[in-house]
Amino acid sequence: MARPPSTQPTDAELEVLRVLWDLGPTGLGPIHAAIQENRPVALTTIATTLKTMLAKGLVARADGPRGYLWSAATSRSSAASGMLSKLVQHVFDGSARRLVAHLIEEGVLDDRDREEIRAMLESPPRKSSKKGGGR
User: Fold this and answer.
1) 11-72: which CATH topology?
2) What is the band of 108 on the pLDDT scale with cuts at 50, 70, 90?
3) What is the rounded average pLDDT for all residues in the chain?
């Protein structure tokens, strides 16, 4: 199981993590190329971001045939859980209900989303080590 990151990733770090989750262990060049498809960014910026992420425990690196191979040290699920918990605590006063109400009121949920959420609510709860579900 992936260890939780020591700190929450920034937007730029999430962008790098998304590339690593999609590609798996890879070199600096392919990471840069993938991000370059969406926005102009210097190779040195990506290298610096990776070095910062390494210090935070968000990525790991190994020697490869032509330089370092970078990989995500945290799973997509772990990153999402940490960020969502922080959002619920700081923006919605610890209330998951308020988060869901906000999504409904803002029209973020389409009919399919609502159907899937209803099905989840009607199915037996999965066992979790976390207690409580908000206020």
Assistant:
1) Arc Repressor Mutant, subunit A (1.10.10)
2) confident
3) 88
